[in-house]
Amino acid sequence: MRRMKAALLCTVLLLGLSGCGAEEANNASTSTPPSEVESSSSTQATTQQTLSIEYTCSVYDASGKQLQDASGNNQYIEFPNLNTVRASGRLTKCEGKYVSGPLSDTDQQAVQQAGYTEESSVGTLYGICATTIGYPVDNRGSSIGSTSDNPLVNEAQAKEALAALTICPDHPDAQQIRANAEAATKSDRDLSAKKSAGEVLDDGTYTIGSQMKPGSWKTSTDEVSNCYWELRDANGVIIQNDFITGAPSVTVQIPSTAASFTSNSCGTLRWTGFCSLCFIG
Q1: Residue from 136, 137, 53 nearest 96 by CA
Q2: pLDDT, tens digit, 9 for 90 and up, residues 4-18
Q3: Are 273 and 216 in contact (CB under 8 A)?
Q4: Residue 24 pLDDT grade (very low, low, confident, very high; cuts 50, 70, 90)
Q5: What is the DSSP string of 114-134?
Q6: Which residues lie across from 227 on neighbouring strands?
Q7: 74, 178, 234, 273: which has the highest count of C-beta atoms within 10 A?
Q8: Parallel, antiparallel or unpaired: strands 200-201 and 91-100
């Protein structure tokens, strides 16, 4: 009888100990280490951060004239975000400045598309998103004259403008910007082809016949100043030259008998055709 009571008491004690151990094990499996709680809170705070861009914008009227304050100074307005720029309903030319915050996947894609090397340059693209006059929309508000209605002059600028539209496809002038970019890309590629064919040249020295065509050449800018050009024979002797202090344009007749041509501060020259009366003198 004493043996049965002893066995029963041991069984009760064992069951009690087993229950306590199970509860402790269960509590241990559901508790979270403090370090994981801190890490989780830190991760949540990081994901709540947003990209911050500041905008400095000049404001224009419909004719492209920059608005001025009562003192006659050009107006510049600071905007805290893109929505406030859009909500102003004004024609704006803006510069965007990256302040803080992580870039989204779309932002990073746009930075790469534009050919930038620094992520902070995303501010430039957001500045384009806030711009509704001037580059890259049109030539209004520009102090530099242009022979083209397209404010984009080369393929690099076209890539930058299209990269901005990756960020803001809802830009109010998106259609015009895309058309400008397409035209600039085509123009730039055509220009490269003509340079390879010796029909377009920039300042420098060129061998006539192999690097440039003989014939009539004309500057392509609206105004030429302090332009110097010269022709040399096969012995390197200058056979003709000129210095133009200022003129709307310059035309140079280059005979096939000349060996080389040099231009300095004349800008881009374009070949306009062969000339049967090209002569030196």
Answers
A1: 53
A2: 444 444 443 444 444
A3: yes
A4: very low
A5: HT-S-GGGHHHHHHHHT--SS
A6: 244
A7: 178
A8: unpaired
